[in-house]
């Protein structure tokens, strides 16, 4: 049976192994079944003792992270642009840097208009957005959430990725429409007319790049295009 440890001792253990503090905090909150953003709670409860079950969960999470598994795959969750997404090894772990793409896309969209105003969109109505290679649906869902007046479509060549994205959309009650397509190949069946905006965070790591060795837990097709 695992030896009882305190919150502070867990964080020191992670530090000894060279684990980033934020990673350790998130994994510890996950092990304690606390909200992942509640890092301040750890500071005010640093002498609390973990139960044997919590200790075992923490040790398992710590070892998996030290083995290179992304924090999001261990917790099954990732916060992105104000949304909490479910993620697993079927999709790329959404990076905070990708939020810049969402910010840029929102800046490029025309301002929302009252329903009585003349349509300013090239699509003669609500702005139409297409997300290519949606993965977990992070970008598409963030845009739909930030601009509920838009119509967002998202495609991916991976049915596994689409299953994750659709589940996220259903849980968040966001009406993004998903379909299987190898980039633009099947998009014509959408019959949406012109798109006001096409966004994408495509695979951009070169085959054979040495950085891929540290990304073996993530789907290769989301990292390098072949």
The helical percent reads 25-40%
Q: How many strand elements?
A: 6
CATH topology of the largest domain: Rossmann fold
Could you say which structural class the secondary elements and strand pairing correspond to? alpha/beta
- Please, how many helices? 8
Name of the level-1 CATH class of the largest domain = Alpha Beta
What gap, in angstroms, lies between the N and C termini? 47 Å
Uncertain segments are none
CATH hierarchy: architecture of the largest domain: 3-Layer(aba) Sandwich
Cα-based radius of gyration, to the nearest Å? 20 Å
Query: What count of domains describes the coordinates?
Result: 2
CATH homologous superfamily placement of the largest domain: Vaccinia Virus protein VP39
The secondary-structure element order is HHHHHEEHEHEHEE
Shape: elongated
Kindly list the characteristics that best describe this protein.
226 residues, alpha/beta, Rossmann fold, 2 domains, four-stranded parallel sheet, two-stranded antiparallel sheet, elongated
Description:
This protein has 226 residues and is an alpha/beta fold. It folds into 2 domains: 7-67; 90-222, Rossmann fold. The chain contains 8 helices and 6 strands; from the N terminus they run αααααββαβαβαββ. α7 links the parallel β3 and β4. α1 (7-16) crosses α2 (21-31) and α6 (99-108) packs across α7. The model has no long low-confidence stretch (mean pLDDT 88).
């Amino acid at each position: 049976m695992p030896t009882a440890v305190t919150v502070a001792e867990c964080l020191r253990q992670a530090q000894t192994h060279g684990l980033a503090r934020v990673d350790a905090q998130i994994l510890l909150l996950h092990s304690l079944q606390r909200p992942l953003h509640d890092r301040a709670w750890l500071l005010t409860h640093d002498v609390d003792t973990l139960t044997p079950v919590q200790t075992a969960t923490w040790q398992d999470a710590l070892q998996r992270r030290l083995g290179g598994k992304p924090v999001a795959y261990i917790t099954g969750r990732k916060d992105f642009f104000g949304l909490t997404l479910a993620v697993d090894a079927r999709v790329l772990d959404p990076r905070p840097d990708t939020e810049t793409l969402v910010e840029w896309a929102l800046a490029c969209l025309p301002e929302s208009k009252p329903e009585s105003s003349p349509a300013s969109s090239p699509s003669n109505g609500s702005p139409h957005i297409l997300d290519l290679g949606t993965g977990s649906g992070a970008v598409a869902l963030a845009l739909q959430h930030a601009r509920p007046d838009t119509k967002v479509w998202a495609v991916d060549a991976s049915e596994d990725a689409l299953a994750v994205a659709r589940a996220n959309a259903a849980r968040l009650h966001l009406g993004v429409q998903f379909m299987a397509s190898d980039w633009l190949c099947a998009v014509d069946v959408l019959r949406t007319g012109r798109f006001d905006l096409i966004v994408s965070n495509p695979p951009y790591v070169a085959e054979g790049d040495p950085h891929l060795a540290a990304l073996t837990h993530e789907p290769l097709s989301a990292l390098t295009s072949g």
